[in-house]
Amino acid sequence: MTKLGPIGAATRSTEPAVFAEVEALGYDTLWLPGELAQVAGAVRATSTITVTTGIVSVDQVPAAEVAAAYTAHGGRYLPGIGGAHGAKPLTTLNAYLDDLDPVVPASDRILSALGPKALKLAHDRAFAAYPFLVTPDYVAAAREIAGPDTDLAVLLMVVPETDPESAREKARGGGLRFLSGLPGYAASFRRMGFSDDEITGVADRLVDGVTVWGGLDAVTARLREYQAAGADQLVVQIDGLPANWRVALARAFGNVAAVNGDEH
């Protein structure tokens, strides 16, 4: 069984009430942005849920600060790191991990990973890989590369919209248009079989391939495709999701207790 649990919630909120809600709904992991300042508040607002960051940038945050946060919240905070850019990103990541080794063991850290080399690094020097904007076929291929003992926590953009054009435009505006212009994501999309024209134009086929949209039943079915392909944890971006969706997705995929014992 995955160390992270089957369902995670990603939020950019800084509100303690949101952190507490995620835990109460039964999500296994609370994913914060890559800002260490939020970790303490999330740990204080909750009791047992695993807190992680997706993703602390190794180009911006010193390893010593990550190690200090890990030590301060023993057992509750598992660092998620990545974001190495420049000419030799894997060299940069390896050096950063070397600095973390004395304090944060590989068994307690997560690496952002899209390409095969990054997935192999996650296998060698972390317990989990954290890809975003990928297809179920990518997940199946990543499982082969990372091996059976590396958790795959797959971040998923969920758009609660049944109209195709509206859903796709919301996905584009929700970050896909910007990210498709970044070299790392563009290269990942090419490896998944999307053409340069589809990537540049953020074509419908690309949107449909790497995001999840539709009504609740359609979204649930699509998430199960990722699970069947080998995702150990489904990480759902909950910002903007209706309250009943947050409850329903936690119930569908996690070990969920109702909030205040109520059925929603």
UniProtKB/TrEMBL annotation:
One MF term in the entry's GO annotations: oxidoreductase activity, acting on paired donors, with incorporation or reduction of molecular oxygen
InterPro entries referenced in this protein's UniProt entry, alphabetically: Lucif-like_OxRdatse_MSMEG_4141, Luciferase-like_sf
Highest taxon listed in the record's lineage: Bacteria
NCBIfam families the record matches: F420_MSMEG_4141
Identification of the protein by name: TIGR03620 family F420-dependent LLM class oxidoreductase
Source species of the chain: Amycolatopsis alkalitolerans
Lineage: Bacteria, Bacillati, Actinomycetota, Actinomycetes, Pseudonocardiales
